[in-house]
Amino acid sequence: AQTVTQSQPEMSVQEAETVTLSCTYDTSESDYYLFWYKQPPSRQMILVIRQEAYKQQNATENRFSVNFQKAAKSFSLKISDSQLGDAAMYFCAVNSGYALNFGKGTSLLVTP
Amino acid sequence: NAGVTQTPKFRVLKTGQSMTLLCAQDMNHEYMYWYRQDPGMGLRLIHYSVGEGTTAKGEVPDGYNVSRLKKQNFLLGLESAAPSQTSVYFCASSYGLNQHFGDGTRLSIL
User: Fold this and answer.
1) Among B42, B96, B103, beta carbon nearest to A91
2) In which region does residue A23 sit, left (phi positive, over 0), alpha (psi from -120 to 50) or beta (all else)?
3) β-strands B19-25, B73-78 pairing
4) Per-residue pLDDT of chain A (112 residues; tens, 9 = 90+)
5) Chain A partners of B88 at a C-beta cutoff of 8 Å?
6) Are B43 and A4 inside 8 Å of each other by CB?
């Protein structure tokens, strides 16, 4: 069975600052993918970034980057130059076949 | 470009009533999924389909049935709704691993 743990129910960051959201996971798969999804108040699920486990290089997408530690089964999301529009729930997920297993989420508050 | 469309967006049911949630995608994706999201929880997989005419159980399938008669549609049925099924339901589709989500259906069962 796979588990995804997000130990920070809530985080707060000031505009323009950097914040890191934590995620740990457990999987018996040797080949897998990790994801961060953003869910703003509109309820949409938006893919932020994806990491292939076989790649050592950390994925980046503009202001979003990950710190992937495969041996530690850790997959944190770093948001640089935080903006008010980054306020949302963030979910970490790992795939099981083509389905996804999600963590419980971290609520990110961005203050001016 | 509609993407993934869920119908309806909101619904209130009484205990014991039945209903069907419709998910339609226009991206020609093979894979489709139904998740539920409860307060303080991430999304949990109810059922999924890897192609037209196929369905499979996910993590929390009890009380739900699904059908995939057409490639573009994935239906989620509640035969006898229970208050424990009050939730937000998300449909998603994918060709590979990147899933595209609908906007969700908020379902309340009294």
Assistant:
1) B42
2) beta
3) antiparallel
4) 689 999 999 999 999 999 999 999 999 888 899 999 999 999 999 999 999 999 989 999 999 999 999 999 999 999 999 999 999 999 999 998 888 999 999 999 999 9
5) 43
6) no
